[in-house]
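During the second half of the funding period, the structural biology subgroup turned its attention to how the target accommodates small molecules. The most pressing case was 6-O-phosphono-beta-D-glucopyranose, which had performed well in the primary screen but for which no bound structure existed. We therefore specified the complex as follows and requested a full 3D prediction, including the ligand pose.
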Amino acid sequence: MDTTLVVFGASGDLARRKVLPALQAACASGQVQGRVGVLGAGRSTLDDAGFQALLGEDEQTAALAPSARWVRLDYGDPSGYRRIADLVSSCRQVVYYLATPPEVFPVIVDSLAAAGLNRRGDATRRVVVEKPLGRDLATSRELNRRLDTGFEEAQIYRIDHYLAKDTVQNVLAFRFSNSLFEAGWNRTLVQSVQVTAAEEEGIGTRSGYYDGAGAVRDMVQNHVLQLLALVAMEPPTTFDARDIRKAMLELLRAVQPIDPQSAVRGQYRGYLEEDGVDRTSRRETFAAAALRVENWRWDGVPFFIRTGKALRQRTTQVVIRFRDSPALKLEGIRQRPITTLLQLRIQPHEGITLRIGAKRPGTRFEMVPAGLDLEYQGLAGRPLPDAYEHVLAEVLAGVHTVFPSGEEIDRSWEIVGDLIAAWEGGGHPEVYARGSWGPEGGEELVARFGGSRWLNPGEDPSQVGGV
Ligand code: BG6
């Protein structure tokens, strides 16, 4: 075997629903070079045949079954790690994927190191960890410290699946291959920026995790801030992971910790009746905030973010609102300028729309919004690759572009720290109707901090005014 993916918690939900199907798909689509085997490790009393049968039950993992192996272990038990060492000893690359609850990350990392399986500094030995990466700055630092004692940064892969979305990566391509836009991508021409990550679904069956986390930990600390960093960062020297991560960290350092006074939280009506949710829970299922990015490029430009569950429509998008041009007069009457908007649609209906002002045909100078549309899906000519497949392909290739660094994760916790503390301290979130765009406070926020209003997902920027 060229590569072995050692999956801790391989019989669990995350591994079977996400990690292993993505591995099979990445291998099938040719994104992965060489032969890859799976070694499941966990507390379930399985053996090789039992694990193979489990993989064989699902067509999305069946191709991995024939060569799959199982090591039963308690996560702190050295004998299990010795068996893993025997099984992977002749492998060129070994990836340890921690698909377990985060409480056992430290004991697994320590045990790998104690068994010499980490080979500290050897980039052919890698470790992959996934959200939640801490609950706050202190726990995030502690996790990073534990990872750092076993592995060097170059061996560590922290998953943020948003970064691995093709259209999120396209934000970089769009910005840095179109000098026309990049030239105006600053306080001189940009009036405000909006980032929305809206979901239609409620929390489903995930109350056990979500009621302890909420929208800020679940989405803002990671996906939303990462997306914002790509939109706002300085041009990296190259598209290599090292330079991109450096530019992203620099930007996150400029993002000021969110002031609870410039944020709004909401909870969808019915959340308290969801299975497993504490009936008195004050957990937010919606969060919106105005952020300040204090650097040369963005001084004075408000960045608005919002995310939530049970909203009207699933959409992730970024909207750049450019400054209005001076309004010209026609027959002594000042014409209403049309605001130029650039909408980067991350999902669904991936693409880019530029709203510009145009003259209504047949009139003298009546201005109307018009749109220029680019469908990203059409460019690809084939379905966009799944983010998880891309994550696995990049780990196996040893490329860090779509993985945030430990410093980025820590900094993101710093940015949301005051907000989390304030919201855990008291009060109840504003209740909003399922299928709405969240609480009213979320709407007011934009007007209050110098924007106009949200461009709601699904609205065609070339058809609406007032944004
Ligand atoms: C996950 C969150 O990280 O991202 C979920 O834990 C959320 O709550 C999901 O639903 C959204 O991802 P996507 O790719 O469906 O937009």
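Two results from this model are relevant to the next phase. The chain has a mean pLDDT of 93. Residues 263 and 407 are 24 Å apart (CA to CA).
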